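chain below, 269 aa
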Amino acid sequence: MSSTPSIQISVINASTVVADSEVQPVVDALQTQVNNDFRPAWGVDAQLTFVPTGSNPVPGTWWLTILDDSDQAGALGYHDLTPDGLPAGKVFAGTDLKYGYTWSVTASHELLEMLGDPNINLTVLIQQNDSAGTLYAYEVCDACEADQFGYTINGVLVSDFVYPSWFEDFRAEGSTQFDQTNRIHKPLDLLSGGYIGVFDISSGSGWHQVTAEQTPASLSMRANVGSRRERRRVPRQRWVKSLSHREILRNVEIYRKRLERITAARRAA
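prediction:
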């Protein structure tokens, strides 16, 4: 008999652009991905519980919250941690839809990375010599995050993710599997549209993104407020706990009424 996973995650729909009926199949697909794909590779399991619009998550659970965009996150008071001080992830579905990305891939991305590095503080040191080295962020989806490299579970597109071997630079090219869909063939390699956060310990220049194309980061790679990439650059003592979900729901109504007034004013203009 299998035991209940110790990690309990509430998937909360606070978005105005995706309905509960659209979210539930995604949650089911994410649960299958965790159980069948991520757990065998990473040894981490979790139980997901869908929290429909207007409902409250169970206290003591991690949060994966579906939002419209970072503006909404700020307006509703979602911050860096749950009210209990536990890990929290954010999915900006409205931003994805606006720019033609698939929000279920982003949800998969954020979920798996939260499971792989919940405290957003793990790194791998690749040391070039006695005085030079580079820290690689322990993010499991960034290297292969583009929608085109995702795969489907019950008709839902989810994100590809790397295996622990991807961070092991002693691995020879083609010697093992480096990602779930087997498109990456050597350590630390980036697929088209992929990127990874790095920190040059010699220069002390801070975190920056390295991209597959060696070009400046695109919109999808920018650090939204409250995102994992933004939080990795902020000292943990500056992280802020979220409001209680009861307060957030109250703010949701205020936010939606504000959107309705703005929309009505635009139509009347």
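The chain has one domain: 8-268. The chain has a mean pLDDT of 90.
thats it, cya
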